[in-house]
Structures are given as structure tokens and as C-alpha cells.
Write a structure and sequence with these properties.
The chain is built from 13 helices and 13 strands. The protein has about 350 residues and is α/β, with parallel strands linked by helices. It starts with a strand and ends with a helix.
């Protein structure tokens, strides 16, 4: 019997979305015939195919781009439509807002099951004017006229999805614990020195990840060492003399650098449910995050991490830390990831959706 075919369409092929797709696709490629239609981004690994099982097919899109351009959008719709007509999938799984809209416009065949992971709705982007955010919301609302299941990757994203359509479910993001265990087994266990704290974050240096706030926190804590793991067009905002920018690193290198730090901060302006946060929690790094959807769905203030409502909160929290508190909170964080964000459970939920 031939396998059912799944086509994944992804424009945001980097960062947390990339990590999520690697785990999801590799875990389902024995049961399904899988093709990924993708667009390259700055943070897409050069050797990205090496992360995936050998039986995955890749098709690069020429027109699926991050920036909005009506001509490119029309070409992207035609391109996706043609590929879908050739591939003839049973299921199309869309990832990120751009692919979510383009995919739903392109696919006319009602026999194809449509799934959509926003990974952070575009109408939550705080770097855009209110009128644009309302426009993005309206576009998402109109797109729900096409029968499609929206999958929120966190409780907060699910709540937003329900405002758009009842045809929404929640499947929390997760991480493969065994993969991280394999990496950290080779590394030395870092002992925290309260007087020499090392702080890091992970991600693209763009408006969403809030480098301006990261820089402000660093300059107010000049006696502490800060590291940004990643790169991006706003790295000039990271001016603090105590900030190290690593550029893009392999997953193995990221885990090593994360292991060498004590505190993980995420001052993002919006999120889906950050994979990097889950990894930091599992590695028992004290996590301090902004008060946005995704972050606040995972972190319970003072129990498994801290929620900061201003840049002053980050400094205050770090200055009031003691070893006993750190050990309690980081142990709670690790247990939460084990119980709630294990990728094995996440994959089983997706398999159920694929089979229904």
C-alpha cells in the first residue's frame, strides 16, 4: 500500500521553526511520503538537508519571500498551485503566517487536508502600526473561510486562533530530550558563580527579539558577560562592551555556548512558543522572559523562571538571585519540560491529526 503524502510549506525556514520541522518531519517520514517546499532565509543552515532523513524531498520556492510584494505573492500562489498539482498530496501542512496565507489561497482541491501552524501570528507583531496589525488580522480572518485546522503551538496562540475560527486546536511545541542529553553528556557541568554571572539569548537579531532592550540590560550590568547566539540586520544595536555576538552556529555549538552560560533571557516583543526557551529550561538555565504570548504560557513567575515587564525587572531579578533559589527554580523548569514539552508527546498529537 502506498504511503499517504504530506507536503510541508514553510517560508520561515530557520530558527525555532526549522528545529521544529526537523523533529516533526524526521519523526513521521517512515509513515508518510514527505515533501518540503521552502524558502531560504539568512538563518537557514547551508547544509540544512543534512539535518533531515534521506527520504525527504525538497523543493525550493522562487517567490515565497518574507517581505510583502504583491507581484511575488501572485507568483508564489501560482508556483505553489503548480507544485501541489504535481505532487498530489493528501495533507498540506503550512508553517508561519506567509505560508499560511499563500498556501490557503493556492490550494483549491477540497480533498486535501489543510493544517496551519502560525508559529507566532503576524498580527501580534509590535513593530508594525496598529492599522497594519488590524489588516493582518482581517487577512487571517478571511483566510479561515478555507477549511483548515489552525494549530496553536502554545495556549496563548491557541486562544488567538479561536478568535479567528472554531476550527482550532492546541499542540504545545516540544523538544527531544534525548538529543539534548546526548550533546550535554560531552560537556562539563557549569557551576554558577553569583559574582560572575554569564547571560545569553538565542535568535535572529531583529525587532521581534528586541536587541535594543537586550543592549540596555547589558549596559546596566557591565560587570556581567552577555552573549547573543545568532546574527541579524539589527546587530548594530548591540553596542554594549560586555556583549559578544557569535553569529550563526551549528546546533551542537549552540548547545555548548548555552551550557557555558548561567542565565537565559528572552526580551521578545512577540513569540509562538520558543524552542530555545524550552531547551534552556531543560538545561537548567535560569530563564527570564518578557511578558508575551508563548513566553508567559511556559514560565510561571518565581516558580520555573521569571517574567519581566520592563528592562529594570531583568536587572532587579539578577541582582536578587541566590544559589538556593536558582537551584529550586531551574529544577522546576527542567521537570516542567519533561512533563509538558516532551517532543515525543507532541509528535503523537500530530500523528493523530494526520490520521483523522
Amino acid at each position: 500500500m502506498d504511503k499517504k503524502k504530506i507536503v510541508h510549506i514553510v517560508e520561515a525556514f530557520g530558527g525555532g521553526v526549522f528545529t521544529f520541522l526537523v523533529d516533526l518531519v524526521n519523526s513521521t517520514s517512515d509513515e508518510y511520503d514527505i515533501t518540503i517546499i521552502y524558502a531560504r532565509r539568512e538563518q537557514t543552515p547551508e547544509n540544512f538537508k543534512d539535518y533531515f532523513n534521506k527520504n525527504i524531498k525538497f523543493i525550493e520556492s522562487n517567490y515565497l519571500k518574507r517581505d510583502i510584494n504583491i507581484k511575488d505573492e501572485i507568483k508564489a500562489i501560482k508556483e505553489i498551485k503548480n507544485i501541489i498539482n504535481i505532487e498530489k498530496p493528501n495533507i498540506v501542512h503550512l508553517h508561519s503566517s506567509k505560508a499560511g496565507i499563500i498556501g490557503r489561497l493556492a490550494i483549491k482541491n477540497k480533498k486535501i487536508k489543510l493544517l496551519y501552524n502560525p508559529h507566532g501570528f503576524s498580527f501580534l507583531m509590535e513593530n508594525t502600526k496598529k492599522i497594519k496589525r488590524i489588516t493582518y488580522w482581517l487577512i487571517e480572518k478571511v483566510a479561515t473561510l478555507k477549511k483548515c485546522i489552525i494549530i496553536g503551538c502554545s495556549k496563548g496562540e491557541y486562544e488567538e486562533a479561536k478568535k479567528l475560527t472554531k476550527n482550532s486546536i492546541c499542540i504545545n511545541n516540544g523538544i527531544y530530550l534525548e538529543k539534548i542529553d546526548k550533546e550535554i553528556k560531552r560537556l562539563e557541568n557549569r557551576k554558577i558563580d553569583i559574582n560572575k554571572l554569564k547571560i545569553c539569548t538565542i535568535g535572529r537579531i531583529n525587532y521581534q527579539k528586541n536587541p535594543k532592550e537586550f543592549n540596555q540590560i547589558a549596559t546596566e550590568n557591565i560587570n556581567k558577560e552577555f552573549t547573543w547566539i545568532g546574527d541579524g540586520n539589527l546587530k548594530n544595536e548591540l553596542k554594549g562592551k560586555n556583549i559578544n555576538i557569535t553569529g550563526w552556529k551549528t546546533r551542537k555549538e549552540v548547545i555548548k555556548i548555552l551550557n557555558d552560560n548561567d542565565i537565559f533571557i528572552l526580551p521578545s516583543l512577540w513569540e509562538g512558543l520558543p524552542i530555545a526557551l524550552l531547551e534552556a529550561m531543560y538545561m537548567k538555565k535560569l530563564c527570564i522572559v518578557s511578558n508575551v504570548i508563548g513566553n508567559k504560557d511556559v514560565i510561571e513567575n518565581s516558580q520555573n523562571g521569571f517574567i519581566a515587564k520592563s528592562h529594570n525587572d531583568y536587572t532587579q531579578i539578577m541582582n536578587e538571585l541566590d544559589i538556593e533559589n536558582i537551584e529550586r527554580i531551574t529544577e522546576n523548569a527542567k521537570q516542567d519540560v519533561i512533563e509538558k514539552y516532551n517532543m515525543k508527546n507532541t509528535i503523537e498529537e500530530y500523528k493523530k491529526i494526520y490520521k483523522e
